[in-house]
Specification:
Elements (H helix, E strand, L loop, with lengths): L1 E4 L4 H12 L5 E4 L12 H4 L7 E4 L2 E4 L1 H11 L10 H22 L1 H9 L5 H25 L13 H15 L8 H11 L2 H6 L10
Parallel strand pairs: 1-2
Antiparallel strand pairs: 1-3, 3-4
Length: 212
């Protein structure tokens, strides 16, 4: 397997976590999206959406982190990243999508660049944009956790797809000084994840293309 990704991309980070949790060996191929390499050859010829991550496996190319993780979970079902029951799977997917579909799209790099480059938004206003939408999304995430049974991680006593999404979001939020006060269940799940070697190995500072 080959994973084309960027160390700071939260979507890439999600997939790295899943690969580490499942103990799968892969080739790390960096794509420097900060300088636009995702829109240039040779990567542009591989990725139809010119985004990261991209997983090459068995002669196929797969995009979109959520689809990649579920694909890996189906091919390598142990340890499972989704519960065995339909309700549990729906709960975990809802948590994961609260981050991947609600928080992340408003705050990813191309959106932030557009705010500054095209809309001429000042740097601090851009950062306030990030902090506002991230905090609002995390508060919604916390409210979901409150309604669920007590657990070590986001859902249950083993990491799931939801944890694969939560940890990268917290990492990026910390870079923008998002306020984490009043999110006890969210941060407890994050801390539980970061005590595991799989999450530590997948984090940005452990990546070969990591930059300070």
């Amino acid at each position: 397997m080959k994973l084309h990704n960027y160390f700071r991309s939260s979507a890439s980070f999600r997939v790295r976590i899943a690969l580490e949790l499942k103990g799968l060996i892969y080739e790390y191929i960096p794509v420097q999206i900060a300088r636009g390499d995702h829109k240039k050859e040779p990567y542009a010829a591989l990725s139809a959406d010119h985004l990261v991550p991209l997983l090459e496996v068995n002669g196929e190319r797969l995009s979109q982190s959520m689809a990649i993780i579920e694909y890996l979970d189906e091919l390598h079902p142990t340890p499972a990243l989704l519960p065995a029951d339909a309700l549990g799977r729906a709960r975990v997917r809802a948590l994961a999508q609260s981050i991947a579909c609600e928080i992340h799209p408003l705050n990813n790099l191309r959106v932030l660049k557009y705010l500054v480059r095209d809309l001429k938004v000042e740097e601090e206003a851009k950062n306030n944009w990030y902090r506002h939408w991230c905090r609002e999304g995390l508060e919604a995430f916390e409210r979901q956790l409150v309604q669920l049974p007590a657990s070590t991680y986001c859902y249950g006593n083993t990491p799931t797809l939801a944890d694969c999404c939560l940890v990268p979001q917290i990492f990026n939020a910390a870079r923008f000084n998002v306020n984490f006060d009043g999110l006890p269940l969210t941060m407890a799940a994050y801390d539980a994840c970061m005590a595991l070697s799989a999450f530590q190995k997948a984090q940005p500072s452990a990546c070969p293309d990591s930059q300070a």
